[in-house]
Amino acid sequence: MRKLSSLFFIIALTSCLQPVPVEEVPVAKDETSSATDNSSSSDSTEEESNVNRDIDGGNDPLLVYQWHLDNYGQRGGTSGEDLNVMPLFSSGKKGSGVVVAVVDDGLEAEHNDLWKNFNSDFSYNYINFSKDPTPASAQDYGHGTACAGIIAARDSNDEGGRGVAPRATLVGYNLLAKYSSINTYDAMRRNRSVVDVSNNSWGPPDGYGDLVEAEALWMAGLEDGLRQGRGGKGIVYVFAAGNGGEIYDLSNYDGYASYPGVIAVSAIGDDGRYADYSEMGSNIWVAAPSEGQSETAITTTDLTGSARGYNKSSLSNLSDRDYTTTFNGTSAAAPMVTGVVALMLEENENLSYRDVKAILAKTARKNDPTNGNWTTNAAGLNINYNYGFGAVDATAAVNAASSWTNLPAQVIERWPLAGEMASGETIDDAGTEVTSDIVISSSGISEIEFVQVEVNITHNDWGNLTMYLKRSGSSTTEAVLSLAHPCYNSSFSVTTCTRSNNTYTFGVARFLDEDPNGTWTLSVVDGDSTKDGRSGVLDSWRLKVYGH
Amino acid sequence: MDIKFILSFFVVTSTVVAQDKIEFKEHGRENKIFVIENEVMLHNDGAIPTRVRTNLRGARRINRDDKVSEIFADTEDGSGRLRSLPGGIIIELKEGVDFNQWASHKGYKILRELSNNQFMISSSPGRKTLEEMDAVREDSNVKSVEANWWTNIAPKKAVDASQFKRTESFKFNRN
Q1: B155: which chain A residues are within 8 Å (Cβ-Cβ)?
Q2: Residue A538 vs residues A452, A464, A480, A530: alpha-carbon distances, Å
Q3: Looking at residue B168, what is its pLDDT?
């Protein structure tokens, strides 16, 4: 029986996937010129007019727009505020042999600037069970195609721009078009012996303020990819940090971007400063380019033609509707890092996912150096709630990868050693601080990689709560877990942040390389200035420390 | 049975109202969700899930070929994570139990195999999945059981902050 859905007021589930309005961007006067293409000579020996699909012998006409690759102020930004990837292109490093899975709403396999890097053998369509993740003609799902272009749009082919790793292999899984527990489990571990990097520019909807735990099956799939993927070295998972920054949403409240093993990426603009929408968080690992406060967004691939995608004929943008200059969000920042990881793995395929994370942190650049959120942790690493360990630096990361000594085996410890640290203290509405200590001594870990903090709290409005975790040893490092904030319902009205259960697990990056021995103090306070009469109880909490 | 259906009389001015409260076990913890009134999710094989504003009975009558599920929220006013149940129960059996034999004996249809002792069986869409889950959980051969949820996931594109009715009593210092 045919559906009579037209009789209903249909809200497409995927209304959240509609493209954002595009900005007015002047078309380049000479789109065939390539002022900054420093690619290797083997790529540029063919005639520029050669559009034979079997030969890469041309330019990347939109490269001039791609300030994230080479920012020399061409779009009003600050020179040098980019990925620092051009020196790698000059030496022929483009991600060859590295397989990147784009887990998204689809990927247009036959796009002129993607097809040559696309591999159908390992791609998957969760709607029709085929190996073609191209969105159906009725679907205006251009997000995954835009992410794919940032990662690995083909270079030197007389088409569009180029990706950060323009010779990496792309596979696409259209998970967002058919999301379910079983499919997210599958998407995290599919082709685990083949896939090197997994790009995930998605997560719980932003801005609503809810603390959303990751699904158990997503965790199971991801853990499988970390432990078994790439011959035991682990798939490298990159996630967008989130875009609710203007509405006081923290990335800490996103259980996916806060999960151990995940690289959470925040967004910076072409001035090197945080994008207003980019969420802060103790879980942020690194920052990468996207549309920032100057509102100069990212140029990348778009769904082919004028009917779909971000660059439609009814709105002014590039004259070539197969590309857009308006892609933004931490959605755009995550694939930047994914591309950089592909370059690192091309340089050194023996890196584990933990090595990749460590290198990214230690080679990150201290961008926006006057920002007051910069601090130094007890291990001497710069850290910032906006930027994590800083802006990703592709050349520094690849150079470090080439001579990197792999980390020793990972050790995971739960503290207290048995059970949870019971508290039972009342969190009153007057703002009295409640604290609870866990003392770690004789830990088998000398250098922390990541910390998870599980809190069990009975409270009718978690949005009232401000929580900090502090480690006091030879010096002190502090991590904000939550700040008093509003939650919103589906009508965008302020509501209470009610949790369906009384527990949440935060992820903290800020203690990287520190010695876990010392006193860890959890502080909880009702930080809501409105005094709504609500009180609660800190029932218990515990730590899980990852390190070596 | 772990599931309890409780009629709540909570009234909100929001356009979204959730009344039926469902309590169930998830990962060993008590959990609760609320059924959003007059909205359902169609989970048709071969199609994108579609959220439809109608009542459950009407949707099931008209969309007989579809898997129709209620939409659930964490709270009475429809806030928090939105979820629905397209059908499917994921089961992990204890070591040494042959799942083919076990499923055959139980009459379960295996939809997908995840590993040697983990697989998904079919179940009715919607809240009935939670009831069927409880029956599976009682089996002594079962190590863990969970529902195959659809949940609201979105691309991380920039959010239009202007639509949120902001309050200035909260302020984060970014600088």
Answers
A1: 16-17, 104-105, 143, 176, 201-202, 329, 331
A2: 17, 13, 17, 21
A3: 63
The C-alpha atoms of residue A70 and residue A81 are separated, in whole angstroms, by 8
Distance CA A39, CA B87 (A): 51
- Best probe of the A interface among B42, B130, B156, by most A CBs < 10 A, is B156
Residue B24 tokens read as 């169930």
CB-based contacts of B134, cutoff 8 Å, min separation 6: B1, B2, B3, B24, B25
Chain B hits for A330, Cβ within 8 Å = 156
The confidence score (pLDDT) of residue A419 equals 87
Query: Cα-atom radius of gyration of chain A, to the nearest Å?
Result: 23
Q: What is the DSSP letter of B113?
A: E
One DSSP character per residue, A357-390 reads HHHHHHH-B--STT-TT-EE-TTS-EEBTTTBT-
Low-confidence residues of chain A: pLDDT under 50: 1-55
- Check whether the bond before A135 is cis (ω within 30° of 0): no
DSSP-assigned letters across all residues of A435-504: EEEEEE-S-S-SSEEEEEEEEEEE-S-GGGEEEEEEEESSSEEEEEEE----EE-TTS-EE----SSSEE
CB contact A369 to B (< 8 Å):
no
**Neighbouring C-alpha atoms within 13 Å toward the C-beta of A309:** 31
CB A457 within 8 Å of CB A498: no
What pTM did the predictor assign?
0.90
Is the separation of the CB atoms in A27 and A318 below 8 Å?
Answer: yes
- Beta-strand ranges (E) seen in A126-203 are 169-173, 197-200, 202-203
Q: Is A280 close to B86, i.e. CB distance below 8 A?
A: no
Helix H or strand E segment including B6: strand B4-7
In contact, B66 and B44? CB cutoff 8 Å: yes
Interchain contact A528–B (C-beta under 8 A): yes
Please choose, from the candidates A368, A355, A177, the residue with its C-alpha nearest in 3D space to the C-alpha of residue A266: A368
User: How do residues A108-130 score in pLDDT, each as one tens digit?
Assistant: 999 999 999 999 999 999 999 99
